[in-house]
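agent> fetching stored inputs for the zinc ion docking request
agent> found them:
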Amino acid sequence: MYRAGDVRVENVPDAAVVNPTDALVRVTRACICGSDLWPYHDLEPTEKGRPMGHEAIGVVEAVGAQVRRLKKGDFVVMPFAFSDGTCPFCHEGLTTSCVHGGFFGFSPEIGGAQAEAVRIPLADGTLYVLPVREDNALAASLLTLSDVMGTGHHAAVTAKVAPGKKVAVVGDGAVGLCGVIAAKRLGAEQIIILGRHPDRIALAKAFGATNVVSERGDEAVEKVHKITGGFGVHSVLESVGTEQAMLTAVNIARPGGAVGRVGVPHYPGIPAWEPTFYKNITISGGPAPVRAYIAELLPDVLEGRIQPGRVFDRVIGMDEVPDGYRAMDKREVIKVMLKP
Ligand SMILES: [Zn+2]
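agent> prediction call returned; pasting tokens
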């Protein structure tokens, strides 16, 4: 991406093993993320362009001399952040705070996943080897373990979803939809989706949403209170990242409730300090440590109990990537899968 709205497909030097802890992964499936739409709107012009993409599954083609856990031919999930797997935060399951870690799709040194191949730093800690073959029919759902399913799960975990709880999901993008899956999986009794796109609402219902609120702002807050006996919800999964979405999240949380934020915040401060204090609301969430969640979510994907891959409603080739951004930005599609 060279600037807002300017996505190009270009030949660049081949990704390769640079450090002895690297692996080289041939990308079999990648995708465009809702968070890629932020720079699509506001990236300042750059001369060299920014490599894009941070979600992929693929096959290990080469490993550096110090890589121990992986070998050529392994079919792997690449989480959107790399991590060493050995530092205090990795041990605590917060791999996105790894002291040696970082994010894909920001700099030419690390590269992006919307590519034929990608260099994976700290490969032993970063990559998760899948117990299935490359051509597995579950590819779409496995791909979501790279980001959106793990991120939706993180929203649910940090919003303290548990059996019998009333839950609201703010946002009907792929992460919000995966948040519905996660909330149901964790035993929520009521799951309210706040969104307004018919195709997304239909999928949310298929994933387990029990109520739909299509209003916005104060009207949305009022409606959520109405369908929760006047008190609001125990858990709010905030998957958007705007001030309006966060304000709604805080206002629909009941006293003692929790908000799990996974939408990248585009506001200067947490709005509505007063209700957050007087209602004893926990505000949590952040970049999801998806690497730490794969082991828990994978069996449900492999055995078909959850189908997060249904969020992909368009498959494109490499040449169509610029149009993929356009289609996601125009909300023509929920999420685009890339088959390089
Ligand atoms: Zn670490």
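agent> quick read of the result: The mean pLDDT is 96.
agent> awaiting further instructions
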